[in-house]
Amino acid sequence: MLMIHYQTFELTQAFLSAPPDDTFILQLAPKEELQSSSLLSDPEALEHDYQLGLQTGFNLIQLYDKLNMEGRETA
């Protein structure tokens, strides 16, 4: 299982470093440090990190909406 984890991680890093030409990647990261680790995390840490990621995504949507509305007002 550990070997599969490392292989998957390496494949993901390679994809993020050189995505296909028709792909736009926006990577979000919460300001707060995550509590979980890549292996053997307890359910509470996973839930905490899930909620943190969800809130980070909502914050991006709110910022996008705000900037979109400001752009419409100046146009």
Structure description:
- The N and C termini lie far apart (54 Å).
- The chain has two helices and no strands.
- The chain is an all-alpha fold.
- The protein has a domain at 24-75.
- 0% of the residues are buried.
Number of β-strand runs: 0
Task: Sum up the overall morphology in one term.
Answer: flat
Mean pLDDT: 92
Count of alpha/pi helices: 2
Instruction: Specify Rg, calculated over alpha carbons.
Output: 17 Å
Series of H and E elements: HH
Q: What percent of residues are in strands?
A: under 5%
Largest sheet: none
The helix content is 55-70%
Q: Which secondary-structure class do the elements indicate?
A: mainly alpha
Domain DUF6363: 1-57
Keywords: Hydrolase
GO molecular function: hydrolase activity
Protein name: Putative esterase of the alpha-beta hydrolase superfamily domain protein
Describe the structure using short key phrases.
75 residues, 2 helices, single chain, mainly alpha, 64% helix
List the helices and strands and how they pair.
Layout: H1 2-17, H2 43-74
Quick gist of this model?
By secondary structure, this protein is mostly helical.
